[in-house]
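step: validate -> pass
step: tokenize input -> pass
step: predict -> running
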Amino acid sequence: MKVAVVLNGDPPSPERLRRAAADAAVYAADGGAKACLAASVRPVRVVGDFDSQERSALPEDWECVVDADQNFTDFEKVLRRLPREMTSLTVLGGLGGRLDHTWSTLTAAAGLRDTLRVCFAGERETLWRVTPGCPLTVDLVPGALVSLLPVGAVSGVCSRGLRWALRDADLGPGAGLAQSNVADGPVEITLRSGALYVWSDRLM
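step: predict -> pass
step: emit ->
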């Protein structure tokens, strides 16, 4: 089951959100409901403390769950209420805005089930999560910029389709980074342990 979650960062265009809704079940975190309203997309559920989006301003027939626990972000609150049969997660509106919000969102997504496909689709960039249980194969055009962003220590990173190939590389604090590589065509990334994000300036 494909799921899309709309957050309160840089909002997705109405067209992008409508395309996502045609292919996945859409959930919104608090202020992400504003993008749903703008695109005339009804989410399955809106979750949060409603400090960014007043509940009274949403349609009466929308399902809203108020969760005021400040120990968790609105994104984490949505994640706890997603269907267990979810096989892929696309996050819209998860990039841009405050850096601390973006960092906490990426950190929360990094710890999701190892086999779950996770993607952050922005209006100017895309991030894919890579884990041992979920390698990445993505069809990028030659010349696309690609950076590998480790979440902590990562080992056994291998790549195909990058101008500067990685072969059983270790990445992370003190171990090296892999920024501003270039795609020569379709890209494949695998790793042995840890988790990383693959960033590109080309959109989904």
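step: describe -> The longest helix spans residues 99-110.
step: cleanup -> pass
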